[in-house]
């Protein structure tokens, strides 16, 4: 809403855009896992955020501003099980998030060996990104 006030963005393990995420995981998730993912994206999550609508708004928005954008994502260590939903889809997540960062004129992505809450486990990585 206020692009002239934004001097940079740091994103930590963000939820990927609905599409291509749902398209990608539809190919590897079971029917039940995919249904759960669709519910999550539809608003059945801890924050009650409708990521489907948010993703549509993002797709219709102007291109990202020419400010530094740092995407920090945890390595696969954040996944509880390599056979679970996170483990099965981690490589898809990683690629989609790199594509998001690359869409910014000054975008960069990097991985941090940490759990999901990077800011609690490796504050130095966050400070370095800022």
Keywords:
3 strands, alpha/beta, 14% strand, 130 residues, 45% helix, 3-stranded parallel sheet
Overall description:
The structure is a single chain. The chain has 130 residues and is of the alpha/beta class. The chain has one domain (3-129). Helices cover 45% and strands 14% of the residues. It has six helices and three strands; from the N terminus they run βαααβαβαα. It is globular and about 45 Å long.
Total DSSP E strands: 3
| Parts with pLDDT < 50 across at least 5 consecutive residues | none
Estimate the helix proportion, in percent.
40-55%
The number of distinct helices, counting runs of at least 4 residues, comes to 6
Strand order of the largest sheet: 1-2-3
Tell me the β content: 5-15%
Task: Quote the average pLDDT.
Answer: 94
> What characterizes the major β-sheet?
3 strands, parallel
State the gist of this model.
By secondary structure, this protein is α/β, with parallel strands linked by helices.
SSE blueprint and pairings:
Blueprint (H helix, E strand, L loop, with lengths): L8 E4 L5 H8 L5 H11 L9 H10 L7 E7 L10 H18 L3 E7 L5 H4 L1 H7 L1
Parallel strand pairs: 1-2, 2-3
């Amino acid at each position: 809403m206020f692009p002239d006030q934004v001097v940079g963005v740091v994103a930590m393990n963000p939820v990927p855009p609905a599409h291509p995420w749902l398209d990608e995981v539809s190919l590897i998730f079971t029917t039940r896992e995919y249904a759960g993912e669709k519910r999550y994206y539809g608003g059945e999550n801890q924050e009650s955020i409708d990521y489907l609508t948010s993703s549509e708004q993002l797709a219709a928005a102007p291109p990202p501003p020419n400010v530094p954008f740092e995407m920090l994502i945890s390595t696969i260590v954040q996944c509880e099980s390599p056979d679970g939903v996170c483990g099965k889809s981690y490589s898809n997540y990683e690629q989609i998030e790199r594509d998001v960062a690359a869409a910014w004129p000054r975008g960069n992505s990097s991985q941090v060996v940490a759990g999901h809450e990077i800011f609690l486990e490796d504050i130095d990585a966050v400070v370095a990104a800022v």
